[in-house]
Amino acid sequence: MTQATSSHRSPVTGTAVASKRRRLFLLDLYSTAVGKKYVMAITGIALMGFVLTHMIGNLKMYLGASELNHYARFLEELFYPIAPHGVALWILRGGLLAMLVLHLHAAYSLTVLNRRARPVKYQSARDFQIATFASRTMRWSGMIALAFITWHLLDLTFGVVNENVGAKDAEGLKDVYGNVVFSLQRVPVAIFYVIANVLLGIHLFHGAWSIFQSLGWNNPRFNKLRRSFATAFAAIIVIGNVSFPVAVLAGVVGN
Ligand code: HEM
């Protein structure tokens, strides 16, 4: 990689598109494939952290309505009274959105970069043999995960497709438990949750595996460990998330 000097810095090399204008170092780095992969990996780690925390938090529904509703209240009260009511949660939401947007942008621009580098498809099927099923479906599984998040927010956060949103429980708390039950008692919605979360699991499996590659920690000696980590992470998320619609339909969670 080219050394940066204080007076005259040349652009980061690799697949960089050399620019005549001087740009911020981070923007310069982001114009390269390596930079975009770093962004994919770092934002991917943050999103994985969210998905894991969210799933663990949702497990509270097995303890009953009061526990889940108090947990939602706790999130709204995060850092209160140091921060005003709800502010820390909005900051976290903003951070999450920024991570998602950056992840999507890096994915899109990496695809454009790859297409430019290889406008003609491979003639043989060899690359497909090397690539796993998960890696080949990254774009599709990612887009379905995005469609799921859109529905999920319209359903449980904004209540556009959920009549229960806005209701209070016996303690006067937001009835998050009732919202989840209302949502997942609808069989097509429950089925969509199961399918979307299995696809999300495939996406997470390949993502968790790729992080190490993107960050350059890809010594073959650790391949077994990487595979175990990716498998365990994806399995934990899928089992946890799929259990919720199943539990509601089975009547384990509900009125
Ligand atoms: C079956 C699995 C899931 C259940 C039962 C569930 C449940 C919920 C509930 C109840 C809320 C609203 C919380 C509130 O009103 O305080 C929520 C919000 C949210 N969920 Fe999920 N969720 C699941 C899976 C997922 C997955 C897989 C993702 C991401 C890939 C996700 C992303 C989000 C986001 C971004 C929000 C908005 C957070 C906020 O505004 O504070 N959820 N979820």
Task: Write up what this structure looks like.
The termini are far apart. This protein has 255 residues and is mainly α. The model is unreliable at 1-7 and 125-130 (pLDDT under 50). It has one domain (30-118, 130-249): Up-down Bundle (3 helical TM bundles of succinate and fumarate reductases), CATH 1.20.1300.10. The protein has helices spanning 25-30, 33-58, 65-76, 87-117, 126-130, 133-136, 138-157, 176-184, 187-214, 223-249. It has 10 helices and no strands. Helix content is 66%, strand content 0%. Helix 2 (33-58) crosses helix 4 (87-117), helix 2 (33-58) packs across helix 10 and helix 7 (138-157) packs across helix 9 (187-214). The structure holds protoporphyrin IX containing FE. Protoporphyrin IX containing FE (HEM) binds at residues 51, 54, 58, 72, 93, 145, 149, 152-153, 156-157, 176, 179-180, 193, 197, 200, 241, 244-245.
